[in-house]
Design a protein that fits this description.
18% of the residues lie in helices and 17% in strands. The radius of gyration is 19 Å and the shape is globular. It has a single domain, classed as Alpha-Beta Complex (paralog of FGE (formylglycine-generating enzyme)), CATH 3.90.1580.
């Protein structure tokens, strides 16, 4: 088997599809003894990959989570993409996002008019809490596992991939080769060309195509250097300002809730200063995040 280079893996992949389950078995991986039509009945080994449907996120089986965390069993290999989200839209389950830059109807029109151009493997960073929850509920109907965002602690655990106390997904060195997408100082040199022009909605695309970096030890890509990722940890406006007093903040500002985000993003020139354990927050205003943020989903085993 040849070495994997980003998401363009140079090895044979056999895809077996039964019912709602698509299991992706790279050559050299152990094939499960039996394949069945629901994830809850499957018994893939650590490292096996599957999808719940065509264009659903690809999940990878990870080692069982420690007792201090929820029983996480699978993690999305990549950040949620436009192609993933539009599968729920095509199923008439979720609406198109009113984008985070507050472009409103103009942004919706750009997506509607160029919908096929948005079926891309780039992270969807413009979902508000309502659209993201809608997608989770849509995906939830396809599995008996609980679909969720990871907590901050769960995100750190899966990002380290078994490397205890690692600063980055690949170890402790600040330069990670192709694991870190941003080894070049000039942001304009390292940023790739957007997959569609601005006049057709390209201005609403953030980050880079998923899978451009090498995976961590558990087969998870782009944990550092593409887009910041949402977690399940939230804090209300009142609670935030009790711990972060600001006499200049007016009543409206004090009402803004926040969601913990992890990782670093394409606009962060000093990405190497952001470690796995660093905490940043996405501010929610009028039901929308005011900055682009990505997401990575997990599947949790339910108690029997």
């Amino acid at each position: 088997m040849q070495r994997r280079v980003g998401y363009r893996s140079i090895f044979l992949v056999a895809v077996l599809q039964l019912g709602a389950l698509t299991l992706i078995i790279p050559a050299g991986y152990a094939k499960p003894e039996s394949l069945v039509s629901s994830v809850s009945d499957a018994r893939p080994t650590v490292g096996d990959n599957f999808r719940l449907c065509d264009n659903c996120p690809a999940f990878v089986r990870v080692p069982d989570a420690p007792a201090s965390l929820r029983p996480v069993r699978f993690v999305s290999k990549f950040e949620l993409t436009w192609k993933n989200y539009l599968a729920a839209y095509d199923d008439q389950a979720c609406d198109l996002p009113a984008l985070a830059n507050m472009a409103g109807e103009r942004s919706l029109q750009a997506i509607r008019e160029n919908i096929d151009l948005f079926r891309i493997d780039w992270p969807v960073t413009q979902l508000g809490p309502t659209e993201l929850q809608c997608y989770i509920e849509w995906l939830q109907k396809k599995t008996s596992y609980k679909v969720a965002l990871p907590t901050g602690n769960e995100w750190e655990w899966l990002a380290r991939g078994g490397r205890k106390d690692a600063r980055y997904p690949w170890g402790n060195a600040p330069t990670g080769g192709d694991e870190a997408l941003f080894g070049i100082d000039d942001m304009f040199v390292r940023m790739p060309k957007r997959p569609l022009p601005d006049e057709k909605g390209g201005e609403f695309i953030d980050g880079m195509e998923v899978g451009r970096s090498s995976p961590n030890a558990w087969g998870l890509y782009d944990l550092m250097g593409n887009v910041r990722e949402l977690t399940a940890d939230k804090i209300s406006g009142d609670a935030w300002y009790k711990s972060h007093p600001d006499p200049a903040a007016n009543e409206r500002v004090r009402s803004f809730s926040r969601t913990l985000v992890k990782g670093s993003d394409a606009r962060n020139k000093d990405w190497s200063d952001v470690s796995i354990s660093d905490n940043r927050y996405a501010v929610v205003v009028d039901g929308r995040y005011i900055s682009p943020v990505g997401s990575r989903l997990i599947l949790i085993e339910r108690a029997e």
